[in-house]
Specification:
Layout lengths: L1 E4 L3 E3 L4 E7 L9 E6 L6 E6 L6 E3 L7 E6 L4 E6 L8 E7 L2 E2 L3 E6 L1
Parallel strand pairs: 2-11
Antiparallel strand pairs: 1-3, 3-8, 4-5, 4-9, 5-6, 7-8, 9-10, 9-11
Length: 110
């Protein structure tokens, strides 16, 4: 079970911190990923972090203004995005193995 939160409407240039709470998994053993998807478009991987905290990936679209982090003690993963742009408007999904959360909506106004 994955539950995302933190999405909202923000102005361009603002920041958001998305969170994903996992339950029912051996969380510490898995890569965790954030994806995003707009209506009619393919789901895009935004960022991921490995189980040991030491390897991360960022899509070019968010590289340099995003930070992914995880807390294995609380089974949560976060995605901080700064300097938000209108093109960041999407539904953001948390992913663990084959499981997905319900998504959290991010909307960035220009």
């Amino acid at each position: 079970h994955l539950v995302e939160s933190g999405g909202c409407l923000v102005h361009a240039g603002g920041s958001l911190r998305l969170s994903c709470a996992a339950s029912g998994f051996s969380f510490e053993h898995y890569y965790m990923g954030w994806y995003r998807q707009a209506p009619g478009k393919e789901r895009e991987e935004v960022s991921c972090i490995d189980s040991n905290y030491d390897r991360t990936y960022y899509a070019d679209s968010v590289k340099g203004r995003s930070t992914i982090s995880r807390d294995n003690a609380t089974n949560t993963v976060h995605l901080q995005i700064n300097n938000l742009k209108p093109e960041d408007t999407d539904i953001y999904y948390c992913n663990l193995n084959m499981y997905w959360g319900q998504g959290t909506q991010v909307a960035v106004s220009s």
